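Appendix B. Chain record.
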Amino acid sequence: MKLTAIRAAVVVAAVYGYFLIFAQFAFVELLRAGGASLTQEKVALGSMALAGFAGGFLAAWRGASPAMVRIALALAAVSSVLAPFANAMPGALGIAIATGAALGVATVSLAAMVPAWCGVAWVGLGTGLGYAVCNFPAIFTQTPVGQAYVGTGFAIAGLLAVPSLTKWREHELKKIFPLWGAIALFTALVWMDSAAFFIIQHSTDLKNGTWGTGLLWRNAAVHLSVAIAAGFWLARGGARMLPAFAWAILAVAALAVNGGSTRDLAGWLYPAGVSLYSAALVAWPGWFSGVSGPRRAGWRAAWLFAIAGWFGSANGIGMAQTLQRVPPEFVALSGALVVAVMVLSDLKHWRSAAAVAAVILTAMLFPKTATTPVGDAFERGRQVYLSEGCIHCHSQYVRPDSLDVANWGPVKSVGDVFKGEPVLIGNRRQGPDLTNVGARRSAAWLKLHFINPQVFVPGSAMPSYAHLFESGKGDDLVRYLKQAGENQMGGVVETASKWQPHGSAEEADGKSLFATNCATCHGSNGLGNGPISLELARKPANLVAGPFAWTPAGEILELRVARVIKFGLPGTDMPGHEVLTDGQVLALRDWVLQLRAAP
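Structure tokens predicted for this chain:
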């Protein structure tokens, strides 16, 4: 029986690991690398969520079984292994639907079947293993293609580990929160977690202080140890207190991450809070919903995961897309929901509600200057663009039938150019055109460039705008530039796919060009360890040892490398070098290929 329990923990870890490393990370990055616009990205992720809804209710309707878990994990494995080859529409849409359906069936079937395989403490172990493995540096820092294959490995491991037992073990049935209460409680937790995760993941300073590359082993250890503790706590009767305690830890972490002096504390607390509630989320349908048997538990799981999981996550991310700090209002809102559930579902547990209410009060009193104001960040950023005089050095007008089209295009219609007051064509162009810069540069790159332009362009006349990020204006400016051109990402990719260099590399020195344009990120020897490498969300590519996800070997390798140098990789931190001549691009390409061929 112990072997069956171990196998059950492996399946839990596999499903969590697949969701985290592929559905949340790799798929989105592959989609962006394939040139998907912001609208296409939302369509793909929305389709994944709808397929997850449908898959979950299908599993409940058909009845959970080991076979359903195996089928779902097999589909998940196929989906992730094909994703690198179908990362552009419409293929990516098919991958999104298959991934969502697989996860919907797998999560509901697993939650309904796991009481037949093990005790609740093993759920904590499986949850912790899934999170911990995803935080291993070799996996967390992998390329999106590599992470997709890691996701395939998770799915296959889970598929092989699924036990065949179908009859629930004898265990005391407890009803901890009614169905409505569990849905409301876990929706509040997932919503706050998803919003905070998105904000931290897309803000370089927040990310480096909480789960930067140097902190991954620590995070893995915290996830594993706290999830195991959660499993034992659930087994010893802590199912009612645990979610409220998890919320309190997440709330403190969400508030602490906004301040530089308290960010390290957030790095310890955030993974602890996530592991606590994640273990409870998996365990609730089978052990604490008050129903017996996999069929009835399956229906509970379908409703819980559809609303708390898919809806809560999508809503949290959607509300956080324009934010660079976690608003205390988010913490207070989720906490109010937790208090309501704790009080209305069982008045005897008023102490938990009182503790949550205390944290809410703290959130409401927290200095509002710690976060970027909620509102239209795009319009605020446009005002910053005007007030800082960006219009005097940068244009926002791609001249038709000129070199502008290749360097800064696509061309916008006359109507789009003249939108807004004042019109931002520009007074003169001393720096690059910024019409579509959001499609060509990541938010992290833009922020770092604003803080220290000379790091990226030695001798640049552009001053530092580091002071803007102290008040949140810099984040608004980045959001404006990103949003203004983000929908043109597909056009940039199309232009890059048709571009052919002319001339020869003899006129330029590739080594010197590399030192000037590339070493800041990739390092002087191309090992991916440049001065700002730790400031980026993903470590720059190792141009010597690989892996070469975006420039695989083949007949057109030289052309692929040249196109990446010229246009960058839209959707990643790799920028283009549009101002280089074709001869300079070819010289730089030859040097990069020389690094790649080094022993």
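Further analysis of this model is presented in Appendix C.
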